[in-house]
Amino acid sequence: MNISDLTDRFGLLAVGLVAFAAVMLALYGIAELASRRNSNRLVATVFLFPALLFLVVGLVYPAVRTFIMSFYSGDGSKFIGLDNYAWVFSNDSALQTLINTALWVVIVPAVSTALGLVYAVLIDGRRGERVYKALVFLPMGISFVGASIIWKFIYQYKASGKQLGLLNQLLVWAGFDPVNWLNNFPTNNFLLMVVLIWIQVGFATVVLSAALKGVPVDIIEAARIDGANPSEIFWNVTVPSIRSAIIVVAVTVFIATLKLFDIVRAMTGGHHGTDVLAHNMWDQAFRLGNDGRGATMAVLLFALVIPVVIYQVRNIRRQELEAR
Amino acid sequence: MGKTRRLMYLATATSALALAAAACGAPDDEGEGRGEVPDAAQDCANYEDYGSFDGETVTIFGSIRDTEADEMEEAWSFFEECTGITIEYEGSGEFEADMKVRVDGGNAPDIALFPQPGLMANYADSLVPASDEVTALATEGWSQDWLDYGTIDGTFYASPNSGNAKSFIWYSPAFFSDNGYEIPTTWDDLIALSDQIAADGVKPWCAGFESGGATGWPGTDWIEDIVLREDTDLYDQWVEHEIPFNDPQIVAAIEKAGEVVTNDEYMFNGVDTISSTPFQEAGYPILDNECAMYRMASFYGAMWPADTTVAEDGDVFAFRFPESDEADNTMLVGGEFVAAYSDSEATEATRQFLASELYHNARLQTGPWSTAHQGVDPSNATTPINELATEILTDPDVTVRFDGSDLMPGEVGASSFWTGVIQWVDGSKNAQEIADDIENSWPQ
Predict the structure, then answer these.
(1) A181 to chain B: which residues are within 8 Å by CB?
(2) What residue of B is the nearest CA neighbor of A264?
(3) Which end of chain B has less Cβ packing within 10 Å, N or C?
(4) Is residue A15 part of a domain?
């Protein structure tokens, strides 16, 4: 790259920055004028306008267009009504994708939250708690694709000769035949879930462990004096006290799971019955060139995420009310 | 604490990176089979006709990467130097997906090297048809069969780049001569030989269809090889979907392939290991005389372990897939097509160069490669297997047909056909059932 290229690019950047500053100043000026007239609504509108503009261009328009595209044929040329949706619910492999997604969003949030909670309780207040926490939190620092490659090595299979995969070598040492883990349906689905759980348990542990520290000691003390045993204390005192933290963790993991793409892409490419919604959406739209079906998958994904978002928003609102 | 944690992060990240790098590292085959641009093609006098384009850039996008891409760039380096055109080549492992994103986004490359003519046809609206000069060069360079695959709706768009011969069976010449086995020329001979080898206590066949996200494709080549040798017209009708995928003749062809592929008496390690054996390693047992034959395209010559001699008098070599009817002379092929999205003069000059004998001869000598360009001398190829492949591909008497799964729509050729083949070798479905499934997945 030569200097003129660089100046071109940075020149453009400078123009962009100046334009941005000018727009901000203009907005501020208009707002200033509006506030002199003492109209709150006008001020709010002026300041909301840029955010709304970005929301419309970046979110509303694509969402509406995707919705419309889902009623068109693969190349977008013919209106075919609900055919794409009929395909999702009648085609074997598309149905398998839906079933897999359902399994993922139930199992992964449940298991990672439960494991994280148990682990957080077990290490709470112990010597070396920070080290334990750091250990389980480490996988969070690895990208999904990196984690997938690590686990692909663990599941690696060779029909004969030396095994590369840890799991199969253990089997061979124990006197069993190696198993082709990633090709064996339906086990392979659960083996892929292990990867995401491995990543998310750390997140669950750290958040829940922090919440545990917030449980007032005097309530637990009181329960103990009243004669509650440890498991009663856990279920009736600890868990209700950190309920909102548990929900936040579960919902966050749920949404991450619904959007899951990387692990499936890197480990099986969606073959051998392991496809999930977000991966199939990409596969249909980009690799197989069927925009209609890809859009349909996107709409389904959107529809599935909405109830969770609504629940979460309500939850936060209720907490705010309680906090007041 | 903060410091230890940071160190731990660093350690984890580094080890993950190292693992990833090890997994993606290309086989290091520097030196072996590498050559240089021939002296004749280094002389700028040869490039005068293309004109002079100071400071112009042509972007080329393809699926070729790593060493192969370096060798390709070397083959056109003198063209760049002498004409002043800068070629910016970009190779992608996700060619189909990236191509769509770039074209839809108005960011198409000047030239794309399409490995699938079927995919190229999807972009016919945005492609620039071949000029008279390119058409003349291509007509001179390739047989009609090849030109047809670069033609969309009667308009010629793209000249071929490389050519791969796919109908090859790999074997160990020493093992064959030690046991008095002869190279079969007909399907019946092939079955007779397989029986003979099996009777001698060696599994005659190896097979492996595992290929990551594309698992199953080696099986589609098996079926295509059989259909092509049943009848060339049948092959064309099948690929064009003029007959349904579950036509009785196609089902019969799948069953015929099954005489070898799904025959436990023949298959090393058993049929149930095929779908999980990586195709890259599936032929290795031939080196230990554990199996006798492995059906895989000419490019498999570069995949043998480093110390293997690939030659007619070496450790391994390949013979042509036998004909069903002895009078036939057919070859299943693959390759890339040079399509253009830009009509600039520099792009046009580059297209002419890529269709020229000059380029194909130079490329043949910069590394292991094969081509169907009639003007090249096959003996210039850097390895014996590429010499054999180029000889066959440039022989006008050979009927060539392009890999069918690359011509079928993506939903079939890059999805349901693969899945079907896997279910077939896994034994969960028979030939009729997979043919029915694939027919149902054909876009209406």
Answers:
(1) none
(2) B213
(3) C
(4) yes
Q: Which residues of B198-231 are buried (b: 16+ CB within 10 A; e: fewer)?
A: beeebbbbbbbbbbebebbbbbbbbbbbbbbbbb
For residue A304, being part of any structural domain is answered with: yes
Note the ipTM here.
Answer: 0.73
- Rg (chain B; Cα; Å): 23
Report the CATH architecture of B168-332+405-441. 3-Layer(aba) Sandwich (3.40)
Place B42 in a pLDDT band, splitting at 50, 70 and 90.
confident
Contact map slice: B 181-210 vs A, CB within 8 A: 210
Q: Is B422 exposed, middle or buried (0-12, 13-18, 19+ CB in 10 A)?
A: buried
Of B4, B5, B414, the CB nearest to A287: B414
Domain stops at, among A69, A98, A114: A69
- Grouping H, G, I as helix, E, B as strand and the rest as coil, residue B366 is helix
B180-188 contacts, C-beta under 8 A, 24 or more apart: B181/B292, B183/B319, B184/B319, B184/B322, B185/B322, B185/B323, B185/B326, B186/B322, B186/B323, B186/B324, B186/B325, B186/B326, B187/B229, B187/B256, B187/B322, B187/B323, B187/B324
Verify that A29 and A152 share a domain, yes or no: no
Which structural domain range is residue A9 located in? 3-69
Tell me which CATH code domain B40-164+334-395 carries: 3.40.190.10
Question: Is the CB of residue B86 less than 8 Å away from at least one CB of chain A?
Answer: no
Structural tokens at position B4: 């230890």
Q: Is A74 a member of any domain?
A: no
Report pTM: 0.79
Smallest CA–CA distance, residue B136 to chain A, in Å, is: 33
Residues B43-76: pLDDT tens digits?
A: 888 898 898 898 899 999 999 988 889 999 999 9
